[in-house]
Amino acid sequence: MRTTDRRAVTAPAAPADVPARWSDVPPSPSDRRARRLAGQVHDGQMDRLGGHMLDHVLRVAASVPPAARTVALVHDVCERDGGTPDQVAVRLHLTAEEREALVLLTKTTGERLLDHTRRVIAAPAGPARDLALVVKRADIDDHRARAAAPDPSYDEVRELVRGALSATTAAGPGLPDGVAAAR
C-alpha cells in the first residue's frame, strides 16, 4: 500500500485513470511479482512528463492484454536502476519470450526514442518482438495521451509500431498466446 510520501510501496494501487481492463483478469503470480518490483524500483521516480513513474507503468500494464501485463509492468525497470533484463527475468521467472521482449524494450544508454523504436521493429520476427511491440505501443500511447502539447516524435514512433504490428498480422501467427488480441 502506498503512503503519501511514496516511500513504502508494497502493493501499489492503480491510479484512478487506469482502464477497467486491469481488473478483467486477476493478476498472475508473475504479475504480482512484477508489480511489486515496479513499485520498489519506481518509488518516488517521476516520468518525463512530470507524473509518477509507477502510475505510467500501471496505465501501460492496464492497456495491454493479460499475457503482456508482466512485461508491461517492468518495461522501464532496467532503465531506472532495476538491474539488467537477465536479472529481472530471473527474479520474476519470465519466459524466454518475455525476457527477450524486456531486452528489446530496454533502451541503451543515450538511445533516442526513434532509434530505440527502430531497433525493436528490426528485431527478428517472432513472439518476443511482437510482445515488445504491443507493450511499446501502449507505452507510446500513454505518453501521447498525457503530453501537454502534441509531440510529433510520439506520432512518428506510434505509426512505425502500428505498421510493424500490421505487418505481423499479415504474416500470420507469431504473437504469444493471449497477446494477439492487442493487434
Overview of the structural elements:
With 183 residues, this protein is mostly helical. The chain has one domain: Hypothetical protein af1432, CATH 1.10.3210. It has nine helices and no strands. Helix 2 (29-42) runs antiparallel to helix 3 (53-62), helix 3 crosses helix 8 and helix 7 (113-122) runs parallel beside helix 9 (152-171). The longest helix is centred in the last third of the chain and has 20 residues, at 127-146. It is globular. It starts with 20 loop residues before the first helix and ends in a 12-residue tail after the last helix. The model is unreliable at 1-15 and 18-22 (pLDDT under 50).
Task: Enumerate how many helices there are, as a single number.
Answer: 9
Average per-residue pLDDT, rounded, comes to 83
Strand content: under 5%
3D shape? globular
CATH superfamily: Hypothetical protein af1432
CATH class: Mainly Alpha
N-to-C span: 33 Å
What CATH calls the topology is: Hypothetical protein af1432
Helix content: 55-70%
Low-confidence stretches: 1-15, 18-22
- Report the major sheet: none
- What's the architecture in CATH terms? Orthogonal Bundle
How does the helix and strand content classify structurally?
A: mainly alpha
